[in-house]
Design brief:
Blueprint (H helix, E strand, L loop, with lengths): L10 E8 L2 H11 L3 E4 L4 E4 L7 E6 L9 E4 L3 H13 L3 E8 L4 E7 L5 E7 L6
Parallel strand pairs: 1-4, 5-8
Antiparallel strand pairs: 1-5, 2-3, 3-4, 6-7, 7-8
């Protein structure tokens, strides 16, 4: 296996694609005990005991193609390196390398089995 210098993933975030965001938000908070960590652009919930245990509640159709889960590499530079490695290895990038207005640098890549993954890192907010 080739030696890779990419950063280790900081967390993996599960995604659920739902018709009724409010009902799913209530399920994750009221039934499972997650806390709301984010409301915009989607609902994100995290475990009060382990804030890296997270679920994003995405309305159906929010993203096309819809990734199955996210891998947070911790640093935008690691996202750039992973993007370069994906291109070098001939993997299919299905959403281009982008810095989103809500504060993440990301791209979507299809793994060898066909699963679409959101590879991301948070970026510092630009001064206004």
């Amino acid at each position: 296996m080739p030696d890779r210098t990419a950063a280790a993933p900081a967390r993996v975030v599960a995604y659920t694609h739902v018709e009724d965001v409010a009902a799913s938000r209530a399920f994750y908070t009221d039934v499972l005990g997650f806390a709301v960590a984010m409301e915009d652009p989607v609902v994100g919930v995290s475990s009060p005991a382990n804030p890296t245990a997270q679920v994003l509640v995405l309305p159906v159709g929010f993203e096309d193609p819809a990734p199955r889960f996210g891998v947070d590499l911790g640093e935008p530079e690691a996202v750039d390196a992973a993007h370069a490695a994906a291109l070098r290895d001939g993997l299919r990038v299905v959403y281009p390398l982008t810095t989103e207005p809500w504060g993440v640098r990301r791209f979507f890549v299809e793994d060898p089995g066909g699963t679409i993954i959101n590879v991301l890192a948070h970026v510092e907010a630009e001064p206004q």
